[in-house]
Specification:
heterodimer, A: 29 strands, B: alpha/beta, seven-stranded mixed beta sheet, binds zinc ion
Amino acid sequence: MLCGIDVGGTHTDAVLIGPHGVVACAKLPTNHDDLLASIREALASIVAVAGPTAISRLTLSTTLTTNAIIEGTADPVGVLVSGGPGIDPEAYRMGGHYHVLDGAIDHRGRQTGAIDLAAARPVIDAWAAAGVRAFAAVTKFSTRCPDQELALKALLADRSDCVSLGHEFSGRLGFGRRIATACLNSAVWRVYNRFCDAVEQSVAELGMTAALNVLKADGGTMPLSVSRTLPVQSILSGPAASVMGIIAVCDIAEDSIILDIGGTTTDIAVFAAGAPLIENEGIAIAGRSTLVRALRTRSIGVGGDSAISVSRQAVEVGPRRLGPPMALGGPVPTLVDALNIQNVIAVGDPRASYQGILAVAAANGFEPEEVAEAAILNAVNQIRSEVAAFVREINDRPVYTIFELLEGRQVRPTRVYVMGGPALALSALLQDAFSEEVVVPESFAVANAIGAALARPTFSVELFADTASGRLTIPSLGITRQVADNYSPAAAEGEAATCLRDYLASIGAEVEDAPIETVELSSFPMVEGQCLVGHNIRVACQVRPGVSAAYKQAVSKSC
Amino acid sequence: MLKARQPLGIVFFPAYDWAISPTHPERQERLLYTQDQLREEGVFDIGGITELKPDLATAEDVLRAHFCFPDVASVTTTSHLISAGGAIRAARTVLEKEAKRAFALVRPPGHHAMKVVHGARGFCNINIEAVMIEWLRDHYGPLRVAIVDTDCHHGDGTQDVYWNDPDTLFISLHQDGRTLYPGTGFPLELGGPKALGATVNIPLPPGTSDEGFLFAMREVVMPLIEDFKPDLIINSAGQDNHFSDPITDMAFSAQGYAQLTELLGADIAVLEGGYAIQGALPYVNLGLVLSMAGLDYSHVREPGFDAAAVRQSAQVTEYIEDVCRDILKEVRHPRGPGKGDVVAGWFTRRKTLYYDTDAITEYQTEAVRLCDHCRGVVKYETESTRNPLCLGVEAPVGACPACVEEAYRIYEAGQIKGEYRHLQLIDRVGKITSTYTG
Ligand SMILES: [Zn+2]
Ligand SMILES: [Zn+2]
Ligand SMILES: [Zn+2]
């Protein structure tokens, strides 16, 4: 049986899913100071029902790395970069241990300036003396030629606990993103590995034998053992859990919108023909864009606990959360309080909701019911207009070929799936606002954990071949090899898929129903003088995020 | 995080599935490395820089700027319409204040396409800047526009389109026409009788480097723009003046281009030529983008760049100083409208044009009515090795009622007379274009 645990901001949810459906579930408040305690408690309650050996796979979704980055509790990192011509690498400075070296690589992976290792040595010495043990080395265009990063790694070998190299995370271009990704990876390396140690110990103590996985922001999983060297891949996986949950419990085949209405935010995701859209460029955290692949989601500050502000001109909800609803003892009226006095829900003490809204209404010459109605309407309208803007943006994305421009498939959602605490309460109002059909799945309350439990492994590779210079690289797998001048796009596509499949097998990922698809395949003739000298071939392959087919039947309800 | 001081919209359309031929200089690879460079630099992650999808220009958009014979479909492909649509998207971004500036990084280019189009000249079929500008004028009313063409080749097409338009200042800096295609663009080409001085040509000698270009910009281009007081400045941003360009002989650098861009402060830049696709374009385009966005470009330089090795000679410097002084004098006090005859109140000139890309020769008579109330109707009688005699008539923006009436009279008379195969009318006052095949 498969177990999923989602450690959320408010609750930690756990489910155990067997061949015939949900066997056990648990929902307990998250202990922010000790996430591990929350996991242990959730696991214990599952094990109490099913026994320790019934669980064959356990997948965790946790905010550990996200919190460490956002709260600034991660380790200091020594960052060595070389930029060559272009934007000054100082623009991408991370932290106090950041040094720019001479060295340059061009777009075809040719070294146009040697990396200055001699200048790096005293810098590393100084950092080591200051107690820095985590490092990142990043050069511009290292995905086209990793040699300079590898040289820096060799230099750091006996001085470090962890060295993250830019090209290891993605074959996509993006120097600043690569710096942020490698640096953040090293920054959370220690805290994450200690966490993994503790999780493994807890699992052993409970007598479990399950394969351990963690959820990534792209909605896929990776083995816990692999995540130890790539901890940054576990950031911001919260929205991914809910999206994967929706996929698990509903049969989504058409273009759809997913709304996860939580306490503080509403997360929006868009599906094209039943598949979630992926943000290929990578997700941003703490104001820094990274190369961490993620589901394409958008978040707005409208949730159940969002504060209501009233003026004579307008009643608005969010974007701030100033505490729980007044019905639960909070300081200011919230969306939940508005729903409470309109009798849409019954939370805590409805009189407290009424008194709170009465106070802000009277101060502006309104009736409390007017304010409550206006607040709910404002929340629904904000969600609706954000959804419209998001879909417009997706349909307006740039394209690079005439074919794409003329044939560009437009996403036209026909359904809105709503989940999260206030989902049911708001569904009728949302139905009034949206022309699409609004659906609230039955098991929306623990869908996150179901999503984590059933998510499949994902991975993506980018292959880059330059037959003129005879070089092929697959940066994220560390593959560089010679390539013949008659190497074809079809061969490249095959090689990328094979390498991806081999990699998944090597890390022990269950690849049963992980379909590999090509998301990019292009080949450009390269000309020097008047002569064709070779081809510039680019392939990107991925395992699309999805849920285990065998178990989907068990949890999928008509919705 | 980086943030643009001037919000910039970039329309990037490399048309990866279109080329004249696989090894032609104007091929897909042209923008491939630029795309790599911009992506790797994270240009689209910079706050205030937005990547935009091109519009698709329509036949109607083309017919506002050109006479196309036999018709638009015969002289364009979809890629030309997207390229022009990309320029329109850039312009729309600025006029609708979505961004302060915009850069259309599109291909194919357009500045050799003239008012009358029978086919492709110098890799250009339709003039993407002209289609854009006339789209703007149609949607936002009359605008005074300055176009500064910094492509290495003379912008003969743009010059021809705006030859009789006093509201468009066209300035072309280019390698001297005695040494490079298309062989035109001399200082005495100053515009038609109603637009004298609104066309300016600055031919520069082979070997001109950063100093020479920036001198011409400071001493000629900027003062003339100041005099003209345009509502919009447009840069036909050709990048084939680069010292490594394979089809030209100039010595401009990425730093020079970025400085020129900063000096000019164009609202809209539209990519034209540039064929040093590995050694120049990625760096020049990056320099342009950073410069337009008001960001630091001081670290942008070509790998292994040695300024001393490409610096212009003292002789070149002296020559440029002389040429610039003479040009400023001629432009400010033009002696007359150059070659042409006045016949019954019309200023008429005859042109023979060669379409090198399509191997077409065209014989053309252009006539502009010397009206006291407006710019005057313009009429083109044209035949080519592809088309028998055709007629194009335009009542320009701001035409007086008499000229509008005259335009229709000529168009209708042309149909009745039956000596023209294809006829096209552009009525910019009534916003009507009409075509007729006899
Ligand atoms: Zn040119
Ligand atoms: Zn020019
Ligand atoms: Zn008139």
